[in-house]
Amino acid sequence: MNRLLYLAGFAYIAMCATLVARAVRDRRAASGAVVAVAHTRTPAPPVPRTGTSGEQWFAAMKPYCNPVEVEVRTRYTPAPAGSEGAGFSAACFALAGKIERARTIIDDMAAGDRGAAANVLFNVAHPVADAGDDRASGPMMELVLDYWPNNYMALYHAGMSEFSLGQTALADKHLRGFLSMYSEADGFAGAAKAALAKIEAGTAPAPDVKPNAEREPTARP
């Protein structure tokens, strides 16, 4: 009798273990199916955009727009293609004082794209000029005028730079051109008229030894 009871007990335990194992297995299978469905419904992350805009390039490059580093940096990290990239590249070289190199960059563009590149250059030079540094911005503005001759603010800043350097003939030409286009009675017009009055009176600053052009080093004998 006792043996029969033991056998019945073991059979009951075995049956319970089988039921529990089946329930665990079914639950795991169901959970895996839910995860698989969830994974199929989750969209793939967007592919990151490659490349960079001219503004981003210039923001990263600007600390190196100096005579010592600009050539190497731009050689290994060239500006993006197109008129915007060319304009920012020219601006970087112009900030470094390499005006002729900047001119070459713009001249290498198609004729129809040079004005757009000069516009980018102007937008870089304008804040420099508005901050009062006409001597630094003057050569850049003169370069802008080669491609955008009726830009009246470029005429003003170029003229004031030339006036400060004693280049009275160029200053007179550019400041008169500015006043012929500018009708506001503000500080810009007042400064231009005052400079012209000094030129006419012969009291303009004496010519500077460093004109607004890129100077080649003098060869030593």
Explain what you see:
The protein is mostly helical and about 220 residues long. It has two domains: about 35 residues; about 150 residues, Serine Threonine Protein Phosphatase 5, Tetratricopeptide repeat. Helix content is about 70%, strand content about 0%. The protein is elongated.
Based on the structure given, which CATH architecture of the largest domain is correct?
Alpha Horseshoe
With helices defined by DSSP (H or I, 4 residues minimum), what is the helix count? 10
The helix/strand order is HHHHHHHHHH
- Distance linking N and C termini: 127 Å
Q: Approximately how much helix is present in the residues?
A: 55-70%
CATH topology of the largest domain: Serine Threonine Protein Phosphatase 5, Tetratricopeptide repeat
Tell me the name of the CATH class of the largest domain: Mainly Alpha
Write the SSE topology.
Layout lengths: L1 H40 L12 H8 L8 H7 L6 H13 L3 H9 L6 H17 L3 H14 L4 H13 L3 H14 L5 H15 L20
A few lines on this structure:
It is built from ten helices and no strands. Helix 4 packs parallel to helix 6, helix 6 packs antiparallel against helix 7 and helix 9 runs antiparallel to helix 10.
